[in-house]
Amino acid sequence: MPAQPNRRMPLSCEPCRVRKIRCPQTTSSPGGPCGTCLRRGVPADQCVFLRDIYGRRPSHPRTPGAAAVVDESREATNSELLERIRKLESLVVGNTHSGTPGTRPEGSTTSSPLVVLSIAVMSLDESSPLLRDLGKSSLASRSISTLTSRYRAAAFRCLEADHYLWRQNLRTLQALILLIYGINHSHGQSWSLLGLTRNVALSLGCHVDPEHFNLDTVEAEQRRRCWAGLTMLYLIQNTCLGSIDPAPIQSSVRLPLDVDDDELTASSTTVNLQMARNRNTPSQMSYLLYKFRLYDVCSRICSQLFSENGLPSYDAITAFDNEISAQQDEWNIKYVSDTRHSSLPTHHAVHLNILFGYSHQLFLLLHRPVLVQARTASGSNHRYPSSQLLSSRSRCLQSASALLGIHRLLHENDDFRPYQWYNRGLGSFHAFHAAVFIAYICGTTTDLDADYVASLRRELESSVTTFDAMASTGMSRICEKAAPILRHLCANSNLFSLKNLQPVQEIPQTLHPLTPPLSGNGCSEGQAYSPTMLHTTSQQLEAFLETLQPSQWLSPAAITWNDWDMIMDGYPNSAGLFST
């Protein structure tokens, strides 16, 4: 507003007046800052004198016509301001009288977009120019790490500005859950942050079904989704850490609805949502719901494997096997049944492959005790008969082959490039588990068909090629560790495959020297062959694989790579095994 005639103008410039420091009251040069601002590095456009600003304003004579125009424009402006004030008041009143227990009016500082950015950066391709422009590094892996840490740190600063440690709301909970999800895929478990987040959810009452509160459909589903996501993270981390919290919180919260986001409105009715839920096509929530059920199965399987009561009964193993198979059938009905008329969207196709990959991982964990016990126990101590052993071995070989195929498909299909962050981490870990299992079976079984062993050998070779290609990008630490191990396992399996061609016989108690393979069939050049060393290390490898705890196959963070290095150091160099 214009200055009044009798108003005194400050003599100092605005920066000096605000900081209450001495101002020379004159500019150092025409149009430039004063001497103090010049020394302090204040930009020239910020060093202004109010007397100059108001002195430059032209004075317009107030004619009756001009006054009428000014009054009309002022009234229009006032009406717009009043309308905006009413809208703001309605928002404030709505937040103040919300029936959500524990919610508070949220500040302008929000961390959710920054958390989403920290996760989205991981989906960028290593050749993306965004990584070079934003990360300022020639290495894509370093740029992703830098950007992820930067956005994650900014998100935590926003949470601190919102005082999330003592003032919680649903936005805070959503941001924390996404943070944990991103950390799990980049650094491993975040048990301490997960415990804090669970307590935040409890303080908000998310463990109570929203139907007990006066909430609209949107907020009720938000709370159910938060609790489902948090419970899923808690289940898998608690299982990977050895069930350190054996008493989970009892909850009456129903699972979220299997509907898309745009189907949820404040005026949505239960009948309409139920009709949408009964459709045979996947929604945006289908993947989360199916993954939630798989993690629940994994938790119950691990309670059997880690039990102090000994080996699980085969009836229990069969029950879990049937439950996983039933879920696979349900996925096929939901995702594949409607693809006759239109192709499955890319994100649904990736989700379906991830679900099947995780189910095959559970099959390997579930049947592992049967196969290991058959090798380590004497004939009189076998708990599982040969028919059950053959059934479990067949199931595991099928699952291992399927896992390697999924890993290769996600790597080679260009449409799945935005999802390489999964394949570089958990997907590669599951594929490594599958490859190790195939190598172990080929090395310890004598009654497999020769053609079938050859096909398994080709699958191992193909998997090594995939692991090498992913390791060469520098984006997957798991592939960098697993690729040389798999090369050694393939070399060892090649020796054992010669034994598989012999007639079926009992496994000998002592290993006799085997004919070394020709160099053209895979033996590396330039190193003397030592049968004693090779057979000793073969026995060591078998014993090592049999004594591996099943907990090491639950998460990439649980595996001890140093143990693998110690075992593999005793093998002949097989670096040129698949060289061309």
Automatic annotation (TrEMBL):
Pfam families: Fungal_trans, Zn_clus. CDD domains: fungal_TF_MHR, GAL4. Keywords: Metal-binding, Nucleus. Signal peptide: none annotated. One of its GO terms (biological process) is DNA-templated transcription. Gene3D superfamilies: Zn(2)-C6 fungal-type DNA-binding domain. SMART domains: GAL4. It is found in: Nucleus. PROSITE patterns: ZN2_CY6_FUNGAL_2 (PS50048). This is C6 zinc finger domain-containing protein. It comes from Coniochaeta hoffmannii. The lineage of its organism: Eukaryota, Fungi, Dikarya, Ascomycota, Pezizomycotina.
